């Protein structure tokens, strides 16, 4: 029977950071393994003789792919926030540009009107 990597061989849930192995190499959550060995004195997978004194605590880190994915997702959120901020800045700049264009157009009209009035 094949299990997913990072899965407890007893309850089939994702392994926590409190996991262990037996000398045969099969891995499970520490709590599951100790409960199993209190009832059965064999490995839950290969049935090799085992006892609680055979349990070896593992100091596992999250899989590299998951860690990398989390970093990439965090970076994506950060970049999305930066993009939204830049879009807002662009909208503000566009409004200011429109205002300056309108002001410039008004000044040109005033000059033309003055020139016209002065020519009379």
From TrEMBL:
SUPFAM superfamilies: RING/U-box. Coiled coil: none annotated. It comes from the Eukaryota. Gene3D superfamilies: Zinc/RING finger domain, C3HC4 (zinc finger). The lineage of its organism: Eukaryota, Metazoa, Spiralia, Lophotrochozoa, Mollusca. This is Zinc finger domain containing protein. One of its GO terms (biological process) is protein ubiquitination. One of its GO terms (molecular function) is zinc ion binding. PANTHER family: E3 UBIQUITIN-PROTEIN LIGASE RFWD3, RFWD3 PROTEIN. InterPro entries: RFWD3, Znf_RING, Znf_RING/FYVE/PHD. Residues 8-47 form the RING-type domain. PROSITE patterns: ZF_RING_2. One of its GO terms (cellular component) is nucleus. Keywords: Metal-binding, Zinc, Zinc-finger.
